[in-house]
Amino acid sequence: MHIDMDAFFASVEQQVNPALRGKPVIIGGRNNKYRSIICAASYEAKARGIENAMPSWKALKICPDAIFVPADTTKYVYTSDQIFQILQNFCPQVEKFSVDEFFLDIDGCQGLFGSALDMGLAIKKKIKQRFGLTCTVGVAPSRITAKLAAKLHKPDGIAVLSKKEVLTLLTTLPVEKICGIGPRLKERFHYLGVYTCGDLVQYPNSLLKKQFGVVGLWLKAACLVEDISDIPFFADGKPKPKSVGHSQTLRYVSTDQDFIHDWFYLLSEMVAQRLRRQKLQGRTVYIYVADGFKGGHSKRKTFIEPTYDGYEIYQRCLEIIDIFPCKELLVRVLGVSVSNLEPANAIYLFDKDIKRERLIQSIDHINNKHGEWTVYPASLRCARY
Description:
By secondary structure, the protein is α+β, with helices and mostly antiparallel strands. It has 4 domains: 8-73, MutS, DNA mismatch repair protein, domain I (3-Layer(aba) Sandwich), CATH 3.40.1170.60; 75-164, Alpha-Beta Plaits (2-Layer Sandwich), CATH 3.30.70.270; 166-223, Orthogonal Bundle (DNA polymerase, domain 1); 243-383, DNA polymerase, Y-family, little finger domain (Dna Ligase, domain 1, 2-Layer Sandwich), CATH 3.30.1490. 42% of the residues lie in helices and 21% in strands. Helix 11 crosses helix 12. The radius of gyration is 23 Å and the shape is globular. The chain starts with a strand and ends in a 15-residue tail after the last helix. Mean pLDDT is 84; it is low at 232-237.
């Protein structure tokens, strides 16, 4: 079972402030309503043509009466955690896929709550009563098809599909409807004559692997409803994240390499702080740049040694930038994330490493006691505003 909250951020704001209900609401990642990126929109706003990831100035041009609300992450995370607890009362095997999406392995739970349809309706009712929020429920034989079932029945819908019904649906379903197939992958499939999921399952495995690697085989397995994977037990609802990242929309488009590098350093420090709080370190560093108007560019690299040191993450970003055409780009949006995570339990042998670790711990102690960014590298001053 897949639970997908409907226009989650905007819906939470509409419940907190009844004056926003029934009106076009857009949630921005920053306080400046004209220099932000839309991270969520109410269905009233979506009906007017506003989409997620759209620049706020463009959204307000399309819908001048849209009400801009700065994102309040604390609100959304708290509500998400509470919804997770509600779901655990229905099923012990729950996974928080994202802040507004959840997976449940309901096999064996129907005896307690009736059919899968009855269980889905009961969950929707409970969330509605508790928070006034609607969600869409999809039930199918696998994760990806349950997510698809919910996607095709939003908002406030519910769908229960058997394997036979899923296979019939997938025969003519456009391939880009499958989770994991974005615009670029769609173009590559279309170039090869693969337009529907039915076309994909007919494509030879050898050619699919040659063109797309293991991802191609996984997508084919998904379309054959063979991507069965367990949903583990998470007693506290907080499994280890797959990655930790931060992004920032700059006030203006820039080509100033020093300014851009300073922002990469700041984002690296922000990512590092979150890694240390969760006692994690990672080997793979990913960077993203975009001008805020067209599609972005990204690059990643995996390193031998894991780290949670912001300066080291920044140095790894610079290595990636050396093979990345940042100098040729107008930059408005930057992102840094670290993945390939593992528990942080390093033991340092050399004096310079021990001193660096003590410095990091001291900075964390001061910032935890007196507030974030009480102490930070002086070179970040031009990136702070």
